[in-house]
Amino acid sequence: MISKELLDILCCPETKADLVLEGNFLVSTDRETRRRYRIEDDIPIMLIDESEQLDLKTWEEIMKKHGKAV
Known about the structure:
5 strands
């Protein structure tokens, strides 16, 4: 589990946007890139080349769930 303290200092390596924790993923709050980074054994894999780009609808649903403006 990612601690609140770690989540507060992590950011998207591509855009420097904040991240939200969604299951075993960290999701960028940046609307343009919509990057999702996986977490393996409690270690975030923050490599752009290994991230996924979410479709807009999925990203918006995650942002709404976490109280972020879309």
